[in-house]
Structure formats: structure tokens, C-alpha cells
Amino acid sequence: xxxxxxxxxxxxxxxxxxxxxxxxxxxxxxxxxxxxxxxxxxxxxxxxxxxxxxxxxxxxxxxxxxxxxxxxxxxxxxxxxxxxxxxxxxxxxxxxxxxxxxxxxxxxxxxxxxxxxxxxxxxxxxxxxxxxxxxxxxxxxxxxxxxxxxxxxxxxxxxxxxxxxxxxxxxxxxxxxxxxxxxxxxxxxxxxxxxxxxxxxxxxxxxxxxxxxxxxxxxxxxxxxxxxxxxxxxxxxxxxxxxxxxxxxxxxxxxxxxxxxxxxxxxxxxxxxxxxxxxxxxxxxxxxxxxxxxxxxxxxxxxxxxxxxxxxxxxxxxxxxxxxxxxxxxxxxxxxxxxxxxxxxxxxxxxxxxxxxxxxxxxxxxxxxxxxxxxxxxxxxxxxxxxxxxxxxxxxxxxxxxxxxxxxxxxxxxxxxxxxxxxxxxxxxxxxxxxxxxxxxxxxxxxxxx
Length: 450
Description:
By secondary structure, the chain is an alpha+beta fold. Helix content is 48%, strand content 8%. It has a single domain (1-132, 257-445), classed as Orthogonal Bundle (Neurolysin, domain 3), CATH 1.10.1370.10. It has helices at 15-31, 37-42, 50-81, 95-107, 111-114, 120-135, 223-241, 256-259, 261-266, 273-279, 291-299, 305-325, 335-346, 362-365, 376-393, 400-411, 419-427, 434-439; strands spanning 137-142, 153-159, 165-174, 184-189, 202-210.
């Protein structure tokens, strides 16, 4: 029922609406001189062309599907060990259930075992510490600025060397009625130097939906939520680091397939020993998270990556191919038929479904925001994995020279520098896919077999 939302006929079926959207997008692209909507959307991105984006996705698709086969085999073996009949097959609605059983059996890792060490306030302090080490920022709490809800807290962010203010950081961590779900970063005011009155610093916020505890009780979060916390803080640091003239080019106002790069990158600092030993402290004993538990987390880090990568790529590839197929004057596209045929051509494993099926793919059809652009999450992850390798190849995660290059060529420049040129200035070369493949436990294309 969940995967068939918007695809059941009647007044709430979205297929005819999608056909209309695709037709109008194709016509607009043609009027603007582009072959397809995909070519229009990628013209000012880092990828430049839809063909380049498809090549990246197809590089990852084959090893991801191969990993799915391994995951399914592991789940089937466990299911039959528990008494499932010989003809039992894993269906999409079984995948997460049996995957969690395999995780527990293989890694002896229960997410609830990790939570007592992940206190929201302590992790926030850990983020501040990382920002100090990498960006030379200090955070000073403020109580004399207006907020839109009593739960919101504000910090003034300063450069530690000059003492100058670089912006304000608002933190809105708790769920409440009427608040959007999920986690995100906002820029309430962009950094700029156009104003005749003098430079204007930015105001940014990070917003989450944690359940607020009782007074005096710590808020404990999952490892996944802790990773998301660092991710969104990466967006905030991108905005706080901005040092450009024009507000429309500052901070996170960069091309779609580059905006997630700084945030994906910052996730890498959560599991560093410097953060875990200081800030991942048990809420009752105050002891740091045990090294043995961290080792189990690390061993399980590539678990189920076949599933996660394949369900994402299926959506991203269908998105791109829909917009490449939609050409002005061509026959209208039947979304259902196109989705089925495209997935069959790709060799989509029957044991899972797209992360977002076409009739409910709001990223792509509620606006132009991610249309022919859902691939950008993968593009950004490739950049982030490759960029973090610059640290590990040098003096480690807190190497000051690498951090200085990262600030200079990525975080401070906004959209004043062509992204590929900025990345090359930081890394000394174009990004490679190898680091991402290793991180997800996939075979690296072209690597010699041992």
C-alpha cells in the first residue's frame, strides 16, 4: 500500500499529472534551446551534462546490485535456519526485517546499546569543538536576542584569531505541533558586503525533531540521528564560513550537486576518536563509549549498503531517464510503463523497490528543485569521500593544512568559483570514485583482484 501511493487509479492517481509535467518541462527546455529538461537542469551544475551523471550512477549501480545479491543470500540462509521452507523468497516487505536479524547475528550490534552514549547536548558541544579545530570558530551562548519559540537557543559565532563575529547560529532541536518533520538548515540572512553600512554577517539555524525529555533528563539519540546532526551542521558551517561580496552567491547558494558536499563531508568527524572520547559519554556513568563498541559500529558501517545504494540509485536513474526521454513533440510518457521498463533494463532486484516510486516522487515533481537532480546526493557523497581522503592521506582528520585549503577553496567562496575548479584547487585533482566504493564495501572499478 505504501509503495503504491498515487498509483491506484481514481482522483488521487498521479500518473496523468506526471505525464503533463514531463510534457511541459520538455516544451520549456526546447523553447530555451536545450534538447531535454535534463540538459537544461544540468547546464549550470558540477556534472554539466546528464550523460556525466548517468555514467557516475552506472559505475556504482553494478557493484551495488551485486552486494544486494549477497545480502539476500545471507537473509535467506538465516530465514531457512529459522525454519522457513526451501522455496521461501525475500520480498520487498521482508527486507528490513531480515536485514536487522542478520545485523544482530553478525555484528551483535543493537542500536539501543549505542544510544546511552549519545547525548544531544554533548554532541552539540562536540560539533562546536570540531568547528574550532577545522574552522577556527568559537561559539558564545546569547540570551538577549529574540527567538520564535522558547526551545530555540542562539550562539554568536566568532573567529578565534581576530575575535570578529562571523554570524549567529540558532538551534531548534525539538519536535512540536506544526513544525516540519526531519532535519534541515536555514539561512535567515546571507553574508554579504554590498550594504553601504558595512559587511553583513549571516544568521543560520539547524533544526531537528528530537523528542524533548523531562527537565534535567538528557536527550539520547541514535547513531543515525547523530550523523544527521553533524550533516546539517556542515550546511551551517558552509554558511558561517562565507566570505563573498554578493548575498545571492554566498554560503550554501551553490549549484544543486555541490550543496550537499560540505554537509556530507562533516559527517566524517563524528566517528573520530577525538570526538567520541570527549563527547560520546554515557549519560549515567560519564564514561566514554567503549572502543569495542565503536569497533562493532565500524565493522557494521558497510552493512546493508547494497540495499541503501540500490534503492536510491533506482530512483535517481528513473528520474534522469524520464527527463532524458521527455523530448518536445514526442509521444507522451506513460510513467508506470516507463518505470517498469527502465527498472527491468537496469536489472533491478525484485527484492526491493525504489526509494521513491514515480507517482509519489515529491523531490522531482512537487517543484523543479530536484528534477533531473536526484543524482546530486550521490555526486556529493563521492566528493565528500574523496575530500576526506585528503585528510587521511595527510596528517589525519584534523590536519591544519588540509583544513585551511578546504576553508579557502570550498567553504568561504560560495558560488563565486566554478565548483569543479574550486574542488581541484583544494584536492589538487578531480574527484575519484574509489574512496566512496571502499567506504561502502563495493569493488573499486579497475582495481586488481587479490
